[in-house]
Q: What sequence folds into this?
């Protein structure tokens, strides 16, 4: 079956996924501009770190389309915080800071405003007459400051690194990050645990962020992904353009467009690496793509996609039965008639 997929997949990758080299040059230019920006901001207010952390699909090497947006974390330098979980699933947290001898809610809106003012000052000083450098202030509960540089949308997201050091919460890593992974060494699993859990602001609350761990596992440990990465990019492209909620069902009420969001896709990839840990299991594009489809089909059968970074969390726990049937129909169609489905 994988042999029949090989040629249609190669054509699809060449026509719809493969990037031009100019994208790499654009990425380097943006990095330099952002580094200079963060150094300026830090020189004015050392609450903000003097560099950014690139996250998202560009950082972990899974970008399936042209570079049109960039996600960066802006670490905040705080040494006295209280971090408390707001729910039993550890989905949201409250963070207090120590100011003038008392504890108060850490004011992310003040911080976003301060960041906006400093970026505006930087623009006036270095890019005042440049229409391709734009900064826009968002509503008060925004968790990120949006920039536009050379038509690239950039979200500067406030981040507290290893936030649980200020909490009594011990993060519940699953078994495959506690010594039982089939593809990660014990040292690599320990490194993930030692990286800690970052927090990014979301409205007036804070949420765990696994973006840095994503970048480490997919972008560094699995950087030479070869056919794995190509197959994943094809699946991600299909999911983004053709497996959309508009096709899913008329009365779909979810927010994700496409249904399988970027985070779910990466979790699927990591579980596929667990099931197929050996390089020879990914020796062709067709076989690699079939590996991903098989794990997705298994998740649909079990109605379960386990969180890769947190024990006892099913990311498919609220998915309707007809959604699984719809996804499995898509998988079946690709395997039965790849020329038609991938043209």
A:
């Amino acid at each position: 079956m994988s042999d029949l997929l090989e040629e249609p997949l190669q054509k699809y990758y060449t026509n719809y996924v493969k990037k031009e080299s100019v994208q790499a040059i654009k990425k380097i230019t943006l990095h330099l501009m952002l580094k200079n920006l963060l150094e300026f901001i830090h020189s004015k207010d050392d609450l903000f770190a003097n560099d950014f952390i690139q996250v998202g699909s560009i950082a972990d090497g899974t970008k399936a389309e042209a570079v049109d947006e960039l996600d960066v974390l802006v670490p905040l330098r705080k040494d006295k915080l209280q971090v408390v979980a707001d729910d039993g699933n550890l989905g949201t947290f409250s963070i207090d800071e120590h100011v003038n001898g008392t504890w108060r809610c850490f004011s992310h809106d003040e911080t976003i405003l301060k960041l906006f003012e400093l970026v505006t000052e930087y623009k006036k000083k270095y890019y005042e007459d440049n229409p391709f450098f734009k900064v826009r202030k968002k509503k008060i509960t925004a968790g990120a400051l949006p920039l536009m540089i050379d038509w690239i949308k950039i979200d500067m997201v406030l981040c507290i690194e290893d936030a649980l050091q200020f909490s009594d919460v011990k993060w519940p890593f699953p078994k495959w990050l506690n010594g039982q992974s089939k593809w990660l060494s014990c040292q690599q699993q320990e490194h993930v645990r030692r990286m800690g859990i970052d927090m990014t602001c979301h409205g007036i609350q804070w949420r765990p962020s696994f973006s840095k761990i994503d970048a480490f596992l997919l972008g560094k440990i699995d950087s030479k992904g070869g056919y794995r990465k190509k197959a994943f990019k094809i699946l991600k492209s299909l999911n983004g353009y053709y497996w959309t909620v508009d096709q899913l069902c008329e009365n779909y009420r979810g927010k994700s467009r496409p249904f399988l969001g970027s985070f779910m896709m990466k979790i699927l990839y990591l579980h596929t690496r667990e099931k197929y840990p050996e390089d020879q299991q990914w020796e062709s594009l067709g076989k690699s793509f079939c590996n991903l489809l098989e794990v997705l089909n298994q998740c649909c059968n079990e109605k379960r996609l386990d969180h890769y970074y947190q024990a006892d969390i099913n990311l498919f726990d609220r998915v309707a039965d007809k959604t699984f049937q719809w996804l499995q129909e898509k998988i079946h169609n690709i395997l039965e008639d790849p020329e038609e489905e991938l043209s």
